[in-house]
Every structure is written in structure tokens, then in C-alpha cells.
Specification:
Distance between the termini of chain A: 52 Å
Shape of chain B: globular
Strand content of chain B: under 5%
Distance between the termini of chain B: 43 Å
Largest sheet of chain A: 3 strands, antiparallel
Shape of chain A: globular
Number of helices of chain A: 26
Largest sheet of chain B: none
Oligomer: heterodimer
Radius of gyration of chain A: 27 Å
Structural class of chain B: mainly alpha
Number of helices of chain B: 11
Number of strands of chain B: 1
Number of domains of chain B: 1
Largest interface: A-B, 85 and 88 residues
Helix content of chain B: over 70%
Number of domains of chain A: 5
Strand order of the largest sheet of chain A: 3-4-5
């Protein structure tokens, strides 16, 4: 009963937020406050509700409907986990938004943003709780359309409109495949309730099962941003306002992961062995391709979007490994791998939310998202920079921060596959090697971003005049920074909860002789493999004594001087290393992928030794767009032009089409009826 | 309890005390191969002692991060030192992290030094930081594969467990896959410790340096901390090589005699590894930065072969 109130409270506050935004849209300040505060209140309901479901029973709520089309809410521990992920993100992002939208005061309609924001979150909540395929598709579509409207919020920029278009096309291709997948289930089960999908999924002929799996992987994969269906993501996520980007990258793409888990484990019962290998391969590919494009990307928000592709890849590596183990009859190992995946999912929603908010703060105070124009922000934005540094350390998987725990678990779950056959061993170790490369490149990428963006001297007027973000923004980021640290050092609170979640679709607890927790929050695996981030943190603090003992008792005198420039006084921003130069080694290493094109142009005065001006331009190729999408788009456009013949624009022609269609349909009905 | 604390302190002391000596010994052996007299093996101690007495000159562009980085980096390396068996397999804090955690602690140390390299706004620093992170990215896949090869052979990534198991196996531990994994990890060790052909620790030509370019802006006490951190990391990488692949002689229990023997054996192993490293450094020239992917591909291949040969020998 309690749960019902909580759930209605959650829905109610999102609706209040949405409606009051519309009513108050003339008063920017009040409107922003009311709309985001009610979203934050709703998210608190969401957090309490999901925790209560995870620790208690499944929550089911039937809405009125027919036996064929029974709408309803179904929240098991898995759904609740995703509500939790969404709600945590929403809470921090909403507080941040109160400060962030001041950017738009007087320029844009805040009521419109607040309305979309609340409905967007509500649609995500409904996506992970729908109990019926038709209802799911409606809310899924709602989520897609609302997020499209949010992406094109700053529609006066042409690149935003293009990003929105790419997004809406790709997401609908995805929805098409989802519908196909659901129709297969519905055909086998006779109706659209997920409950019956569960029963039908395991008894369908294997060809249908394979097809349902592939369609679901493509459909939800397009939303999750897996390679090669990712091309919309690096355009759409950066185009949206930063608070929305934080939600899109942090949680929206996770709803697709949620449905993948639902379909694969819950409906289909994990299926054939090659499914797992396929998901693992897709995950590995997404991880490496995502980070490779992130490393060379100068736009900080696009870089973060590419990194989301990478992180979805890491999550899918865990899920793929889990599928392989599950199919191989080792549910305990499957549970460990699934826990690793969900842990990373939770971590990613936190640190990616933090980093997107950080990017938003940078844009808020410098009005640029080009990293080459930043620099020196650590002095102008001291608090923000510390918070962002926490996010950077977490996403770079450095101990004892959150990313480290989940990556460590992912590596260990890949190692656990060594109890399997030769093929699995080789596949998993290749995947691990690629994952290691991905991790190292992620560290490279975020080191570059922080080092170039925040350290040394400002590279432009914009960065020169940067100021600290306002209080609500700092609060929002601060919450996530603290959470990033807690997720790193308190795995012993999180793992048992995650275990409850994975038990819903794997059926077995991971806690066994091959996985346990012991004192100091140590995670213990077989053969004495263990790791304890809290202890590592404590050791680090104790060991701080060593440098302090070394530095103690020595005179503290420090001369401030110019940076060394071979004897020349060169302490200007022009002498700094650029982000492009920093990532150049990686660009050279993977030049077959990037195919960098460079253009230089110099004008000379008097002699060819005296350059008057110099222009340098370098860009890399987006291979997937160039070689996969552009040909397809070209083909479709050419064919569409042919079809255009029937679109005369004359009302008489259209009336005759309608008449013709009606006649054919009548004939069809009559023929079918007899 | 007391003995555990003593053990931890002893291990810390050994690590900190031996690290400069190892550097000195390698320099001396290198000098021998190059028919030079070379500085005393205690020179690194004198250097650090002197640096600790000196005042710092700090760039006016830097932030707090520049000052914090050496300390965080040293602490990360020392924490890794508590997870690696040096002279005894029973580490009190051995359960706090495995080989993968050690790799990530090294990454933490590197991350902060590389961040600090960008803080002064010098091109050299950026160059060094970029290259350091580049080499680290090259190393990582090979490193992870060789960790997997070792884990496959021994069954664990816990370093104490690995040392114990290999030590107990005696001479039987020598196998094709173990040798292949050793070669792979040795190449990685060259890169991790910044030695020729990856980086030249003796160079002071800005355009060719990696590690030295990164720390160019450090001076005085801070430089002492950075240098000490680098030396300790080198010692730990050598210890990993020694105690994963030939841990024989390492103490398994807490008896004074075993510990003393283990310390002597450990020192001998370090000298041998140092000599091999010096030979490699003397007989090769530094490679161009963009040829390094080839070197590390070789390492990657070795670790992959180690995996495959294990599967062939053991039949999967």
C-alpha cells in the first residue's frame, strides 16, 4: 500500500512540475524553481519507492483495460533498480538545473523546458515500469519525441536542428525493430502483455527466438548507442541543454540496456551461446570505437557523448559475459558478471551526469565548448574544478573511485570465464585486452580534457573571464561527486542490493563460495582474489605520512618564477601545448581509422623565411558516417525521388488515392470475411 | 598483530631504502658495459638528500594540483608496494588488492604526474605528459593479456597467491607459457620504468624525453619526491617480475632467518634483473616514438602466445 502512494506521489509531482511550468511560463525565475524542485521532490519519491521495492516485493498495479490490452505497472527489483538510477540522477540534475537555466532567462521559454523536462523523466520512469508491449511502445515513443524536443531546444542553431533530425530518424529506425521484435513475441503468445511474453519466449521455435533477439538488439541498441548504430548520439547529446544531456547520457540510454536485459534474460531465457558472444563483441567494439573518437574530439560535450558509447560498451561486455556464463550453465558466474555490468551502469550514470553538468558549468561561464579555447579554469572555478576532477578520476577508473570498482569487477568476471572452454577463454581474453586499452585511452582522454581545460593559462578571452558556477549548480555537481566517491569506497553496501536485482533475471545469487564480502568491505573471489577500496583509501591516507616526513623539517622557501622556455620568457597561452597536439600520438597510432586530413596555409612577407600568417586546419573522418550511413542515405534519397512522382500536390490525386485504398480494403475485408 | 605491523613497516622501509640503490646499481652496470667508471651506486641517495635540502623554483602559472601531484603519486606507488610480495608472501594487506589493482594504482600515480605536467603551461610538459599517457595506453592491452596468461597458469591474480604457488611448484613452474609471459612482461617493464628503447632516463634533450619532460618544472623538494616515486615504481616493477616468475627463496612464514635469506635472495634477483636491463639499454638505441607500437605489439604477441600455448599444453 505504501508503495502505491509512493508511486502515485512520484507521478503526481512530475505532473505538477510539468503543469506548473506551463502555467508559470511568463515568470522565468519562479517557473524554473517550481518545475525543478517538483522534479527533485518526485525523484525523492522515486528513490524511496525503488529502495522499498528492491528490499521488499514486486509492485504490480493494474490499470483499466481489456484482457487483450491490459495496461499496467510492473516493478520488480530490476525495474526498481532503474527507477533508482533515474531518480538519483534526476535529483542532482534538477538541483543543478535551477542554477543552470538562468542562462536562458529572458532568451528562451523556461516553462517549455520545464514541461518537457518533467514529462521526459516521467516517460523514462514509465518505460522501465510498463507491463504491456503497447503501453511500452507508447511511453517509449513519448520518451523519444520529448527527448527530441529537448535536443532541439536551442533550435536557432542549424547544427542543433541537424542533430535533432539525425536523432529522430535513428530512434525511429530503432523503434521499428523493437516493434518487429515485440510482434514476434505477440504472435507466439497471443497478446501484448509482458507476462505472456515471458511464457512464450522460452518455448518459441529457435528461429523466432533468434529473430526476436536480433531485432531487440538492433532496436534497443540504437537507443543505447552501440556501434555501428551510434551516429546520432555524438550529435544529439551535445546539442541538448547540458542538464538534459546529463540525463540523456546518464540515464536515457540505460533504459535501452534495461529492456535488453528484460528481453534477453527475462523473455528469452538467454538463448543460444552465440548471443552472448555477439553482445560481448558489440560491447567490445563500442567501447574501443567510442573512446577512440572521444580522444581526438575537441568539443567537450561531444567528447562526453562518445565516452558514453564507450561506457555502454563496457556495460555490454559485462552483460555479454553474463549471457555466456548463463547459457553455459554457470548461473553464479553469470550473476557476478551481471553485477559488474549493473555496477558500472550505476557508476556511469553518476560520473557521466557529473561530467555533463561540469561541461554545462564550463559553457555557462565561458560560452564555449571548444577545449582549445579553455585553460586556467582551476583558478577561476576552484570548486567546480575539484568536483569535475572527481568525475574525471572516476571515469578514468582510478582507485579508489567508483569506476575502478566496476572495471575491476568486469575484468574479474572476464577472468572467471577461464573455467570454460578454449574458445571462450580466447574470446574473453581478447575482450579484456581491448577493455584494458579502452581504459587506458579513457584515462588519456580525460587527462587531456582536464589538463588542457583547467590547468595552466587561459587560452582565450572566454576562459579569461570565467567565473565560478552558481550555488545550485555546485550543489548538483557536489552531490554526484560525493556519490562517485561513495560508490567507490562502499561497494559492500551496493553489491548485496545489486545481487537482489540480478537475482530477478538470473535466478541465482552471486554470493557463494566464488563471491563474497568480508571485513574492510573486501570483495572476495576464488583463489584468494580480493580487493578492498576502503582499505586502499585508508592505506593511502596513512602513507601520506611518508611524503610529509620527507618534507618535514626542511626549510619552506619557494621562489615563484617563469615557466622554463629554453631561456626565453615565454609564459603566454600561445606557448601552451594544445589539446590537438596532446592527442596527436593516438591520432598517428590509429590513423587508419581516423584518416586525418590537414590543410595548412601560410602567407609570407618579403622572404619565404618570414611567415606573415599561418592557418592550420585538421579534421578526422567519421568512418561510420562516411562509409555506412552516407551511402545508405544517398540510396534512400535517390529512391525517394522516384516515389515523389505520386506526390503531385493536387488534392484530387490524394482524394483518388484515399478512394482507391478504401476500395482495396473493402475488397480485402469482404474476401477475408467469406 | 605487532608482528604484522612490523612486517608492513619493514616492507615499506625496504622499498624506500632499496629503490635509490637499484637505480644506482643499474647506472653502475650500464657504465661498466659502456667502459666508463660511472657514479657511485649511492649517488641517487646523495641526489635525493641534496634535493630535499634545496629550495623550489615554481612556475607562476601553476595551481594547487602541481603541488599535490608528487605527494599523491608517491602515496599511490607506496600503496601498490604494500600489495606486492617483496621478501615474504604473507602480506598483511595483501587482500586489499590484486595485480589489476596494482596496475591501476600505478595508473593513478602516472595520472597525477601527467596532469601536473600540463599545469605550468610549458610545451615540454605537455609533450611529456602526452607521450607518457600514449606509452601507457600502448602498454595496457599487453599488460592485461599477460596478467590473464599468469592468472590462467596459476589460477589467481592475487600476488601473494601467485608467488606462493609458483614457489611451491619449484622448477616445475618453468614452462613455455611462463617464459613467454615473462618476456612479454619484461618488455612492458622497460616501458613502465621508462628505459631505452622506450624512453631514455639519462637524456636532457627536451624533444626526446618522456618522463624527464613531464617533470621538467619540478625542482627542489618536490623533485625529490617525484624522483623517489619513480625509483620506487621501478623497484616495484622489478619486484613484480622477480616474484611472479621466479619467487624461489621468498619467505613464506615469519621467521627471522627466512626473512633475512629472502631479503638477500631478493636483492640478488634485483641485481640480476638490473644487469639484464642495463644490457638491453646498452645494446639498443632509443626508438622513435611512433615505432613504439611495434615494440609493444611484440609484447602483446608474446602474452597472447603465452595464453595459447597454455591452452595447447594443458589441453584447454
Amino acid at each position: 500500500m505504501m508503495d502505491t502512494y509512493l508511486f502515485f506521489g512520484l507521478v503526481l509531482f512530475y505532473l505538477i512540475g510539468a503543469v506548473s511550468s506551463v502555467l508559470l511560463n511568463k515568470k522565468d525565475r519562479v517557473c524554473a524553481f517550481i518545475s525543478f524542485i517538483s522534479a527533485a521532490v518526485a525523484s525523492v519519491f522515486g528513490i524511496v519507492f525503488s529502495l522499498s521495492v528492491i528490499s521488499g516485493d514486486t509492485f504490480v498495479l493494474a490499470l483499466p483495460g481489456t484482457s487483450f490490452l491490459q495496461f499496467g505497472i510492473f516493478v520488480d527489483a530490476l525495474s526498481a533498480f532503474f527507477i533508482l538510477v533515474i531518480s538519483i540522477a534526476v535529483f542532482a540534475v534538477s538541483i543543478y538545473s535551477i542554477g543552470y537555466v538562468r542562462e536562458y532567462f529572458g532568451k528562451k521559454n523556461i516553462g517549455y523546458l520545464g514541461f518537457l523536462y518533467n514529462i521526459f523523466i516521467l516517460s523514462m520512469i514509465l518505460v522501465v515500469t510498463a507491463s504491456n508491449a503497447v503501453m511500452f511502445l507508447i511511453v517509449w515513443e513519448l520518451m523519444s519525441v520529448i527527448s527530441y524536443l529537448l535536443v532541439v531546444y536551442e533550435h536557432e542553431k542549424p547544427e542543433t536542428r541537424k542533430a535533432g533530425f539525425t536523432y529522430i530518424v535513428m530512434t525511429h529506425i530503432g523503434t521499428g525493430f523493437i516493434i518487429l521484435s515485440f510482434l514476434i513475441f505477440a504472435g507466439a503468445s497471443g497478446n501484448f502483455n509482458f507476462e505472456t511474453f515471458r511464457a512464450a519466449g522460452t518455448v518459441m521455435p529457435s528461429l523466432l527466438r533468434d529473430m526476436a533477439f536480433i531485432f531487440a538488439l538492433i532496436g534497443f541498441g540504437a537507443k543505447a548507442g552501440i556501434v555501428p548504430l551510434h551516429i546520432w548520439l555524438p550529435y544529439a547529446h551535445p546539442a541538448a541543454p547540458s542538464n538534459v544531456s546529463a540525463l540523456m547520457s546518464g540515464v536515457m540510454i540505460k533504459t535501452a540496456i534495461f529492456m535488453l536485459i528484460r528481453v534477453i534474460f527475462d523473455f528469452l531465457g538467454a538463448g543460444s551461446a552465440w548471443w552472448g558472444y555477439l553482445v560481448l563483441a558489440v560491447g567490445t567494439l563500442s567501447a574501443i570505437i567510442g573512446i577512440l573518437y572521444a580522444v581526438v574530439e575537441p568539443d567537450i560535450k561531444r567528447m562526453l557523448a562518445f565516452s558514453s558509447i564507450e561506457n555502454v560498451g563496457i556495460i555490454l561486455i559485462g552483460i555479454g559475459a553474463s549471457m555466456i556464463f548463463f547459457e553455459g550453465g554457470r548461473p553464479v558466474l553469470a550473476a557476478i558478471a551481471a553485477i559488474a555490468a549493473l555496477y558500472h551502469l550505476l557508476n556511469h550514470s553518476v560520473f557521466k551526469g557529473l561530467l555533463f553538468m561540469g561541461a554545462g558549468s564550463i559553457i555557462f561561464s565561458t560560452h564555449t565548448k571548444n577545449i582549445e579555447k579553455l585553460g586556467g579554469l582551476i583558478k577561476k572555478m576552484p570548486v567546480s574544478s575539484v568536483l569535475i576532477l572527481v568525475g574525471v578520476l572516476s571515469i578514468s577508473a582510478l582507485p579508489p573511485f567508483s569506476g575502478f570498482v566496476s572495471e575491476w569487477l568486469t575484468f574479474q568476471s572476464l577472468l572467471l570465464g577461464f573455467n570454460f572452454n578454449t574458445f571462450t577463454m580466447i574470446v574473453l581474453s581478447i575482450s579484456a585486452a581491448v577493455l584494458a586499452l579502452t581504459g587506458a585511452l579513457a584515462a588519456f582522454c580525460f587527462l587531456k580534457t582536464f589538463g588542457i581545460g583547467f590547468l595552466a593559462l587561459p587560452r582565450s578571452e572566454h576562459a579569461e573571464h570565467a567565473t565560478e558556477a552558481n550555488t545550485p549548480m555546485l550543489l548538483g555537481m557536489g552531490l554526484f561527486a560525493i556519490l562517485s566517491i561513495l560508490l567507490g569506497i562502499l561497494p559492500f553496501y551496493i553489491l548485496p542490493a545489486l545481487d537482489k536485482v540480478t537475482r530477478t533475471f538470473i535466478g541465482t545469487s552471486a554470493f557463494s563460495e566464488s563471491f563474497s564480502l568480508s571485513s574492510f568491505g573486501t570483495i572476495v573471489l576464488p583463489a584468494k582474489i580480493s580487493m578492498s577500496t576502503p582499505l586502499l583509501l585508508v592505506l593511502m591516507f596513512i602513507l601520506l605520512l611518508v611524503p610529509f616526513l620527507l618534507l618535514y623539517n626542511t626549510k619552506k622557501s619557494r621562489a615563484i618564477y617563469e615557466t622554463w622556455g629554453c631561456g626565453q620568457p615565454v609564459s603566454t597561452a600561445r606557448n601552451e601545448y594544445t589539446a590537438h597536439a596532446f592527442s596527436k600520438p593516438v591520432e598517428m597510432w590509429f590513423k587508419n581509422l581516423y584518416r586525418p586530413a590537414r590543410q595548412t596555409e601560410a602567407t609570407y612577407s618579403a622572404s619565404p623565411f618570414l611567415k606573415e600568417s599561418f592557418r592550420f586546419e585538421s579534421r578526422i573522418e567519421q568512418a561510420f558516417e562516411q562509409y555506412i550511413y552516407n551511402p545508405v542515405v544517398g540510396f534512400v534519397m535517390a529512391k525517394s525521388r522516384r516515389v515523389k512522382v505520386v506526390q503531385t500536390g493536387s488534392i484530387h490525386a490524394y482524394l483518388s488515392y484515399i478512394f482507391g485504398t478504401l476500395v482495396i480494403l473493402f475488397m480485402f475485408v469482404i474476401a477475408g470475411g467469406s | 598483530m605487532i608482528s604484522q605491523i612490523v612486517l608492513v613497516l619493514l616492507q615499506l622501509l625496504v622499498i624506500i631504502a632499496l629503490a635509490p640503490l637499484l637505480s644506482g646499481i643499474i647506472k653502475k652496470i650500464k657504465a661498466f658495459f659502456q667502459v666508463r667508471k660511472g657514479p657511485s651506486i649511492f649517488q641517487p641517495y646523495y641526489d635525493i638528500a641534496k634535493l630535499l635540502q634545496k629550495d623550489s623554483v615554481v612556475s607562476k602559472n601553476v595551481s594547487w594540483l602541481f603541488h599535490a601531484a608528487p605527494i599523491i603519486s608517491l602515496v599511490a606507488v607506496l600503496t601498490a608496494g604494500l600489495l606486492i610480495p617483496i621478501f615474504i608472501t604473507e602480506l598483511p594487506f595483501g587482500f586489499a588488492g590484486d595485480l589489476i589493482a596494482v596496475v591501476y594504482l600505478f595508473a593513478l600515480a602516472r595520472f597525477f604526474i601527467a596532469l601536473a605536467s600540463l599545469d605550468a603551461g610549458s610545451s615540454f610538459g605537455g609533450m611529456g605528459g602526452s607521450r607518457e599517457m600514449f606509452v601507457a595506453s600502448l602498454v595496457e592491452p599487453a599488460l592485461m593479456l599477460s596478467i590473464f596468461a599468469i592468472a590462467l597458469n596459476v589460477g589467481s591474480t592475487n600476488l601473494s597467491y601467485i608467488s606462493q604457488t609458483v614457489s611451491a611448484m619449484g622448477i616445475n613452474a618453468v614452462s613455455p607459457y611462463q617464459i613467454l609471459a615473462f618476456v612479454a612482461l619484461f618488455i612492458i617493464a622497460i616501458a613502465e620504468t621508462g628505459r631505452i628503447p622506450v624512453d631514455n632516463p639519462a637524456t636532457h634533450l627536451e624533444l626526446t624525453m618522456i618522463h624527464e619532460a613531464m617533470i621538467l618544472e619540478y625542482s627542489g623538494k618536490q623533485l625529490a619526491i617525484v624522483e623517489l616515486g619513480a625509483m620506487i615504481k621501478q623497484l616495484l616493477v622489478f619486484s613484480l617480475l622477480a616474484n611472479i616468475f621466479f619467487p624461489w627463496g621468498i619467505a613464506s612464514g615469519l621467521s627471522a632467518s627466512a626473512v633475512i635469506i629472502a631479503l638477500l635472495v631478493y636483492f640478488a634477483k634485483l641485481v640480476v634483473l638490473g644487469a639484464v636491463m642495463a644490457m638491453v639499454e646498452t645494446s639498443t638505441a632509443k626508438w622513435r616514438l611512433f615505432r613504439l607500437p611495434e615494440l609493444l605489439s611484440i609484447s602483446l604477441m608474446f602474452s597472447f602466445l603465452a595464453l595459447v600455448s597454455f591452452i595447447i599444453v594443458k589441453g584447454g
